[in-house]
Design goal:
Helix content: 55-70%
Oligomer: single chain
Largest sheet: none
Strand content: under 5%
CATH architecture of the domain at 2-61: Orthogonal Bundle
CATH topology of the domain at 2-61: 434 Repressor (Amino-terminal Domain)
Structural class: mainly alpha
């Protein structure tokens, strides 16, 4: 499940493996190996991946399907904008 979630999140953020690898300071081959389920990221790297995408490690590991956004650090105005964007996207789907 981890390999699938990493690839889904990476592609949803329109990142190539090279771009994502650069963001995490790892080799492109490392990302490829994660996505092909050849190796698993370390615990520290798992946390970095979760933090980068704004999801929980439980979501990455497939322990739950909740990939909700944490908007607790946003101002009320910023949070309202995010909610409006989500509502707009939801109405078009």
């Amino acid at each position: 499940m981890l390999n699938v979630r990493i690839k889904e999140l990476r592609t949803a953020h329109n990142l190539t493996q090279v771009e994502f690898a650069n963001k995490l300071s790892v080799a492109k081959q490392t990302v490829s190996n994660w996505e092909n389920n050849n190796i698993q990221p370390s615990i520290d790297m798992l946390i970095k991946i979760a933090d980068y995408f704004g999801v929980t490690t439980d979501y990455l590991l497939g322990r739950n399907n909740d990939n909700s956004l944490d908007i607790s650090t946003l101002t009320a105005e910023q949070a309202a904008h995010i909610r409006m964007i989500i509502a707009d996207i939801s109405n078009k789907v």
